């Protein structure tokens, strides 16, 4: 780690006029929270972690503390959580919609899929990614059919 570089950057940032400091914050948010097609369903993620902002916000809304979230996601920092919360404040409708879409209705009762356990399979974007493909509804039958096609030549 280049401590001198970090210290000089911190000095330069602290000396910025208010307008430039605001622009730096906006630019950092845009660079550190990205939407990448094919990564976490194309949803906003923190840095290059593939951890979706909506996941973090949902965990915090369910009562998880920042310490708990950070212990479950050791690659994240307090700054990352602050960025996620800032993104949420600017994009509340988007994140709330994503969280709402990860609820299931069971006999008229809404049951939340996202649990406070961040390692539950339901928390990963790949779960349900084929829901719009009716031929994959029964994956066993789909694989069997695919194998039979390949075996026949």
Structure description:
The protein is mainly alpha-helical. It has one domain: Winged helix-like DNA-binding domain superfamily/Winged helix DNA-binding domain (Arc Repressor Mutant, subunit A). Helices cover 52% and strands 10% of the residues. The protein is built from 7 helices and 5 strands. The protein has helices at 3-14, 18-32, 53-61, 66-72, 78-90, 92-101, 139-152; strands at 33-35, 44-46, 51-52, 103-106, 109-112. The strands form 2 sheets. It has a 3-stranded antiparallel beta sheet. Strands 4-5 form a two-stranded antiparallel ribbon. The longest helix is centred in the N-terminal third of the chain and has 15 residues, at 18-32. The radius of gyration is 21 Å and the shape is elongated. The model is unreliable at 104-116 (pLDDT under 50).
Furnish the topology, listing elements before pairings.
Blueprint: H1 3-14, H2 18-32, E1 33-35, E2 44-46, E3 51-52, H3 53-61, H4 66-72, H5 78-90, H6 92-101, E4 103-106, E5 109-112, H7 139-152
Helix pairs in contact: 3-5, 3-6, 5-6
List the keywords.
single chain; 153 residues; mainly alpha; Arc Repressor Mutant, subunit A; 3-stranded antiparallel beta sheet; two-stranded antiparallel sheet; 5 strands; 52% helix; elongated
């Amino acid at each position: 780690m280049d401590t001198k570089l970090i210290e000089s950057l911190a000095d330069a940032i602290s000396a910025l006029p208010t307008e430039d400091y605001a622009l730096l914050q906006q630019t950092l948010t845009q660079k550190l929270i990205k939407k990448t097609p094919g990564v976490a369903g194309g949803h906003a993620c923190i840095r290059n972690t593939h951890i979706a902002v909506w996941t973090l916000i949902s965990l915090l809304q369910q009562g998880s503390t920042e310490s708990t979230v950070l212990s479950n996601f050791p690659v994240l920092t307090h700054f990352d959580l602050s960025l996620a919360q800032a993104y949420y404040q600017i994009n509340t409708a988007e994140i709330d919609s994503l969280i709402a879409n990860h609820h299931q209705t069971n006999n008229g009762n809404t049951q939340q899929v996202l649990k406070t356990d961040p390692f539950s399979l339901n928390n990963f974007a790949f779960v349900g990614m084929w829901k719009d493909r009716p031929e994959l509804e029964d994956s066993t039958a789909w694989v069997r059919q695919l194998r039979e096609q390949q075996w026949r030549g």
